[in-house]
Amino acid sequence: MITCTITYEIDPDQVSAFEVYAKAWIHLVNTMGGTHHGYFLPHEGANDRAWAMFSFPSLAAYEDYRSQMTNDPACQRAYAHARETGCIRRYDRTFTRPVLSGASPEALGL
């Protein structure tokens, strides 16, 4: 499994518009074979940062999704919304692999 974490710099005056964008992408990622873990919007602290996390079974599955989204009308509408509202100033993607199960320190030889 591969997980993509996106760190956004958003316009603090456009948080509502960003939330619309976020809800669209949660739906789109889930319908295109991924598992969306949610968007995390500003509440306390910095008012211009937001995060999203979603996973795909493999990097190849993520690349298939990226290929599909370039021609998908719903994806293009979501991108257009972000451009038109200016809710996203910039973003960075990071790919990680999750560790989802734990073990006792004894079982780990600690």
TrEMBL record:
SUPFAM superfamilies per record: Dimeric alpha+beta barrel
InterPro entries tied to this protein: Dimeric_a/b-barrel, NIPSNAP
Span of domain NIPSNAP: 6-99
Cross-referenced Pfam families: NIPSNAP (PF07978)
Name of the molecule in the record: NIPSNAP domain-containing protein
